[in-house]
């Protein structure tokens, strides 16, 4: 990939072309001096020339303007000057580079914010199909990536460039560990290939980036995948003479095959196989090489049916992987709200089951489920709880109730992580109330009676009265089943 190189020396312009000669431009002396001043951060000269009506958008033989030089050198005061005087933001040099590409390359977040605020095209591509995310990933500009993805939410920038490389592949090719980890956290890991059939693993191996290869191997297992030249990552490392990486890959090749049959069935979403293995008493809590249980994998995939089967079978919910994360934390990180709620229901159910042995077996038969409840029997109480969460509880009050009902701090944090914004507490509260309802119904207790008494005891007398007044329930909740 062509990399922007703006450390070129000042070279006098060639003789002027004939008037009829199109396609290549020559700077006037004042314009040349203006560009050089921008390059050297000389505001005084720029001010003087501006007063002489110099063309601030003049381009040199490579179609670069003063703005290109100012941004490439991270001269903030010059950038401010050019923005103030309405210099053009959209001019591309002969390689299609605009100033926003250069800001992404240099990683200067202050300049990037100024350009975006001034209206720079955030989705501009150069002639090789690269946008700001590609340039930032290629040059390890982590703050720029965070700005575009987390602040501006421009996730559609995560596309292949003209060579079929997404930002993740470019970062892997360059060996940028910080960028790789950041993109993985942002869920932008990909095992997709470029136009030559290379995965991120092939590209990292080609350049001998051992640390990146090690990180990548934690994300997927296909160590022997071949590119279009029928080369694996190991063969590529051998061809390029990366001896330490070759040794590492040979050792890793032996150690990688540590997923149990149950892990593999979960990874491939084979529900019948999962059930068959569990019926055969396969170890539901077996660990793979990343210290993950099958539940960790199912939670990360967001597969409700797989998670349901594993939770009902009674897997260990407290096991942490090599990064210290429980399955709940994995689901929360992956933004799988339904899975988060299911795991919390299971945690509370099994905790209560341990405390009250008599409670346990009634709920462990056909009626036991941790999935979202859509039953007609519970429609009215669910509606009342929704009204409580969305129209009556104030911010933070749902947490007070959650703590009263012995939700753990980890459970509360996991619920909070799925939604953000000023009104997100309403949905957080609603989810918490439905999780609470799940436990009450499994214990065959009356939820209307419980919610009234608990609201009073927790200090919400006025809300308790509203619930009682609104709840004209003509059904026996003791017969409610969880669907």
UniProtKB/TrEMBL annotation:
Q: Which InterPro entries match?
A: Ankyrin-DD_containing_protein, Ankyrin_rpt, Ankyrin_rpt-contain_sf, DEATH-like_dom_sf, Death_dom
| Record bears the keyword ATP-binding | no
What keywords appear on the UniProt entry? ANK repeat
Domain Death intervals: 397-471
**Tagged with keyword Heme:** no
Q: Where are the ANK-type repeats located?
A: 62-94, 95-127, 196-228, 229-261, 257-289, 290-322
Q: Which SUPFAM superfamilies match?
A: Ankyrin repeat, DEATH domain
Which PROSITE patterns does the annotation name? ANK_REP_REGION (PS50297), ANK_REPEAT (PS50088), DEATH_DOMAIN (PS50017)
Q: Which GO terms describe its biological process?
A: signal transduction
Q: What Pfam families does the record tag this protein with?
A: Ank (PF00023), Ank_2 (PF12796)
Name under which the protein is recorded: Ankyrin repeat and death domain containing 1B
Native organism: Athene cunicularia (Burrowing owl)
């Amino acid at each position: 990939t062509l990399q922007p190189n703006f450390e070129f020396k000042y070279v006098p312009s060639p003789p002027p072309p004939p008037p009829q000669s199109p396609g290549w431009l020559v700077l006037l002396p004042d314009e040349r001096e203006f560009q050089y001043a921008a390059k050297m951060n000389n505001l005084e000269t720029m001010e003087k020339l501006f007063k002489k009506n110099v063309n601030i958008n003049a381009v040199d033989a490579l179609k670069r303007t003063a703005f290109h030089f100012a941004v490439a050198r991270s001269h903030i005061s010059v950038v401010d000057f050019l923005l103030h005087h309405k210099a053009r933001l959209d001019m591309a040099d002969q390689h299609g580079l605009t100033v926003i590409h250069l800001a992404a390359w240099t990683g200067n977040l202050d300049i990037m914010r100024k350009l975006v605020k001034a209206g720079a095209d955030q989705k501009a591509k150069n002639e090789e199909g690269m946008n700001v995310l590609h340039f930032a990933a290629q040059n390890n500009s982590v703050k720029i990536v965070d700005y575009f993805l987390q602040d501006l939410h421009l996730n559609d920038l995560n596309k292949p460039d003209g060579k079929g490389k997404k930002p993740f592949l470019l970062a892997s090719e360059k060996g940028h560990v910080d960028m790789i980890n950041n993109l993985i956290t942002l869920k932008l890991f990909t095992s997709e290939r470029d136009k030559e059939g290379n995965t991120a693993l092939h590209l990292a191996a080609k350049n001998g980036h051992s640390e990146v290869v090690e990180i990548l191997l934690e994300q997927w297992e296909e160590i022997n995948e071949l590119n279009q030249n029928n080369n694996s990552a190991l063969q590529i490392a051998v061809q390029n003479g990366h001896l330490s990486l070759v040794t590492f890959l040979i050792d890793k090749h032996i150690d990688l095959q540590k997923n149990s049959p149950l892990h593999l069935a979960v990874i491939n979403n084979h529900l019948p196989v999962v059930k068959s293995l569990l019926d055969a008493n396969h170890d539901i809590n077996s660990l793979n090489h990343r210290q993950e249980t099958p539940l960790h994998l199912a939670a990360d995939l967001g597969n409700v049916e797989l998670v349901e089967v594993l939770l009902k079978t009674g897997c260990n919910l407290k096991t942490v992987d090599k990064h210290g994360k429980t399955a709940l934390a994995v689901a929360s990180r992956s933004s799988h709200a339904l899975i988060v709620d299911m795991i919390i229901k299971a945690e509370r159910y099994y905790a209560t089951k341990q405390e009250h042995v008599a409670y346990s077996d009634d709920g462990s038969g056909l009626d036991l489920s941790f999935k979202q409840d859509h039953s007609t029997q519970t429609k009215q109480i669910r509606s009342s709880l929704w009204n409580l969460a969305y129209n009556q509880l104030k911010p933070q009050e749902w947490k007070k109730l959650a703590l009263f009902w012995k939700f753990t701090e980890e459970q509360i944090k996991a619920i909070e992580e799925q939604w953000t914004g000023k009104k997100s507490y309403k949905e957080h509260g609603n989810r918490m109330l439905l999780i609470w309802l799940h436990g009450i119904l499994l214990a065959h207790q009356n939820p209307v009676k419980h919610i009234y008494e608990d609201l009073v005891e927790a200090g919400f007398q006025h809300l308790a009265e509203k619930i009682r007044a609104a709840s004209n329930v003509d059904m026996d909740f003791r017969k409610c089943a969880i669907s």
